[in-house]
Amino acid sequence: MKVLVTGGAGYIGSTICSALEDSGHCPVILDNLITGRPEFTANRIFYKGDIADNNLLNNIFSDHPDIFCVIHCAALIIVPESTEKPYDYYHENVAKSLELFRFLSQEGCHRVVFSSSASIYDKTANFKVTEESPLAPGSPYARTKYMMEMVLQDFCQAYKLQGIALRYFNPIGADPKMRSGIHVKNPSHVMGKMVDVALGKDPVFKITGVNWPTRDGSGIRDYIHVYDLARAHVSAVEKFESAFLQSGQNDYLVINLGTGNGVTVKELVKAFETAYGQTITTQEAPPRPGDIAGAYANCDRAETLLKWKCTKNITEGIADALEWGRIRESRLNWS
Ligand SMILES: NC(=O)c1ccc[n+]([C@@H]2O[C@H](COP(=O)([O-])OP(=O)(O)OC[C@H]3O[C@@H](n4cnc5c(N)ncnc54)[C@H](O)[C@@H]3O)[C@@H](O)[C@H]2O)c1
Fold first, then answer.
1. How many angstroms separate the CA atoms of 19 and 232, rounded?
2. Active-site residue numbers?
């Protein structure tokens, strides 16, 4: 099947493209490279441009009328930056997605898979969340995801669209065949920072937030291997029709994508040190703006509707992150 992947030059979008190809599908990438990497588009159908560019969208769909589904990953994604630059985040993630969804509902393809985020969940006493758990997005970034879920749901109800919002927990690792991985010079996510400390690029790994009400005070997350996450998108495309039939819903579904296991940051440091074979220097620090205690996923719905579950463990995620960290400078032309 042919699948349009917006943000397909990014960390997750490029891994989705690899997983689609591994299953015999054909990704078509739309990315303006604001943060994404041209290297990840090599040997793939690639349109450089903006998701809100109506003319470009027209060209893509007239070149590829057989696009079966759109996976919408394109977004700005850095939580602390979103607290400093909310206009940019609402403009890129909300206003432009609104234009993309308008185009798709009128003339493009009517099946949409949307990259949402577990950061929209409210705090819960035991940190485990189902898709019905209360929502309370804690940052401008998270609010953009929450708003676009609501927009997608309303569009699906009013127009011909069918949408699946996938709420990602915390992706780690890299493509197991090392086709892509974290690409920013200074990663803001926990695993990228640990790898930078292990490789001597940063002196210390800061455990940001140590007074959360978790078992050891550090934040709790559900770390999912990025290739498992990518495979879930392949399942969402392949099972698109049957997921709706089975769920009894006509036009809109929300599905958590995680492992089902909560791991604290301090536990992740230990797992990292075991996989790495050495200790890393850590330092306790206050939470960053927009940080939350965290959550982990109940993934029953993904298993039932997408026939998907994770197959990779946290050690494999750490090992792939380390391997990618060692080679990425030779793969990416940052100059
Ligand atoms: N990385 C995570 O931890 C995480 C967690 C939950 C959800 N998500 C969601 O997954 C998606 C992908 O995240 P990622 O980690 O791969 O980020 P990324 O920055 O690596 O990829 C985003 C891609 O979108 C492109 N892009 C941004 N705005 C665009 C626009 N207006 N038009 C065209 N292309 C545009 C960028 O160039 C980049 O290639 C995002 O929607 C993000 O909100 C990520």
1. 9
2. 141
